[in-house]
Every structure is written in C-alpha cells, then in structure tokens.
Amino acid sequence: MQHKSKKYLFFISQDYSFPILRPLQEIIWQKGDEVQWFMYGDEIHKDYILSNEKVLQHIEEVVAYEPDVVFVPGNVVPSFISGLKIEIFHGLPSNKQRKNGQNYHYIIRSMFDLYATQGPSSTKVFNLLVKKYQFFSVAETGWTKLDPLFSEPTPSKDNTKKSIFFASTFSSRFSKAKILYPFLVEFIQKYDYHWYITLHPKMNQEIVKKYESIKLPNVTFVLPIDVIPYMKKADIMLGDTSSIIYEFLMQHKPVITFQTEKKIPYVTDVTDLKELEEILVKRFNSTEKLPKELIKMIDEVHPYRDGNSSLRLINIVDKMLQGENLPTKKKPLNLFRNFKLRRELGYWKF
C-alpha cells in the first residue's frame, strides 16, 4: 500500500521553538511526511530557518495548506487552522508561578487536543486536569528538545579548561542578569574557566549589550537555539529562575542558582553575592555527585534518556489520527482568544 503523506505545521512565534521542533522534524522527514513552518510576530528571527526547511509566509497559505497536525511549543493556536493541535511546551515544568500562585506550566487555554507531557511529575497534574475539562487528551512522551542531549555525542571542548554554562531568564521579576553582570566580569577575568553565556531571547536589550561587550577569549556567547551542545560541554551551571536549569540537570551535572524566586530541592541557592565566588570555586573543585534525592526528582520531571521522545510523540499522534485517544468532549469556542489571534494574524475570513 502506498504511503499517504501527512501534512504537519509548526506554528511558532519565538526563537526557542527551533531546537524544540527540529528533532521532531527529522522523524517526520524519515517517515516521508511533510513539514511547513509558520512564523509570526516580531520576536522571532526568521533568518534562523535552514535552507532545507519549508516556510509558509502568509496566514492565508497556512489555512490553505490544511495541515493534519499542528505542533505548538507556545501557548496559543487559532481554531481556524485545520488539524489536531498539539501542545509540546516551550520548557520543562519549573516552579514559575503567577502572583496568584498558579503554575504557568499548567494553565489550560482551551486550544489544544493533546498535551504531550514530559514526565510523571507533569503527567500526574494533567491527568487531573483532563478529568476536570475532558476536551483534551494527555500522553507522556518526553520532550523533543532533549533528544539530541541523549542521542548525539558530546562535542569536543574548545580547550582543557573547566567550563560553566550561565543562563538567565528575561522577566525583571525573575532575572538576575543585571545584578550579576559586574560580578561575572570580575570573576571571568580572575579565574581560568571558560564561560558559555546564553540569555533569553526576550531579555532587555540593554542588558544583552552589556554582556556582549565582554570581549574575552574565555567567553563564548551562545544563541538560545544552540544551547544543547554547550550544555553538554559545560561542567557546571549558574542560573536564576528558569526552566533551562532543569534541562541542564538532566545530565546529572551540578547547578548553582542565584537569588532564585523558586528554590529547587537539593540545589544550592546563593542569596548573598559576596558568597557566590567562594561557592562557585568550591563546586568546580568538588568531585561530589548529585544527591540521589535530586536525581530521583529529575527523573520524575523527564525520565527518558533514549533520545526517542520525538518518535514517541509522532506515534501517539498517528494513533489519534486513526481515532484513538481522542478527547471525550469538543473544545470550547474560545471566542475571545481566537478573536485576538485573528487580529494579530490579520485573518478575517470565516
């Protein structure tokens, strides 16, 4: 029987989407199916697209494409695009919360047919939510972005120096990049360690320019779309309040946080800047492994170390297209959110 090609759409508005979706794209291509990207908004760098990737330029083209499945690493997707809507998340579940205490990772916006969870800790929560709402399904697949972390070899180091991966989130409430800048400049010059520095794509540009002004041979600036190889190279990580901390911890390598809003059990958090230098140096020189309790917690977040999360996800979606594991109720009309998306995308056909 001849293979009937499926049509997939990647619906994105942020640069962080590229490394999340590319492992999935490889599996789709291997199966002989088609992928089109659609990028919207002014916060995404469209020049990050590769020469062998197909792009739809206008929303009218997206609608006419009539995809079978739409993958979304963001929070919203319009109902006027055809196909199953799959939420694959832009990060691992972290402790970031709204001021009312609601965890950002578990907000239900009534737009998705499937939530592809990353491990038991998030699956438990979404299984409770699916009982409450009943208009979406849940399947634990692991996270597509982490496939290369486990399936690809570690790149050779740039030198023999020990290295540290520094990442900071963007919001003024959670980011400590501004506070840390003078300390890091002095530390980088004082010690013979190599630094891999990445800043969130939505970071305040004044802060980004400050960090980019550090022109030293032991500093490498890493684009957010390229973090995986540098996480693999680094010996330890310094961060604030960001889900990328959990990504780094998947390697069972040590992390130090600075003035984090949400402490991670068994991870050292430094609150006094005067103590940070000593703690970093001590951690570099330590051979101590991560506590078993921390490794157990990490495995609850993402237990899959086989590099096959993208394949699991595609297999689940194939079954849904065949009528399995579909939601028991229809999604709400969600008129307000869909109106906002029509306005943002400039699409008024009905």
Q: What does this molecule look like?
A:
The chain has 350 residues and is an alpha/beta fold. The protein folds into two domains: 7-143 and 303-345, Rossmann fold (3-Layer(aba) Sandwich); 150-301, Rossmann fold (3-Layer(aba) Sandwich), CATH 3.40.50. It is built from twelve helices and twelve strands. The strands form two sheets. The chain has a six-stranded parallel sheet with strand order 2-1-3-4-5-6, sandwiched between helices. A six-stranded parallel sheet has the order 9-8-7-10-11-12, sandwiched between helices. Strand 5 (114-117), helix 3 and strand 6 (137-140) form a beta-alpha-beta unit.
Spatial ordering of strands, largest sheet: 2-1-3-4-5-6
Helix content: 25-40%
From the N-terminal CA to the C-terminal CA, the straight-line distance is 37 Å
Continuous helix count: 12
What integer value in Å does the Rg equal? 21 Å
- Class computed from helices, strands and strand pairing: alpha/beta
Q: Which band does the percent of strand residues land in?
A: 15-25%
CATH class of the largest domain: Alpha Beta
Mean pLDDT: 94
Q: What can be said about the biggest beta sheet? A: 6 strands, parallel
Shape: globular
Which runs of at least 5 residues are low in confidence (pLDDT < 50)? none
Written as H for each helix and E for each strand, in order along the chain, the element string is: EHEHEEEHEHEHEHEHEHEEHHHH
Oligomer: single chain
Number of strands: 12
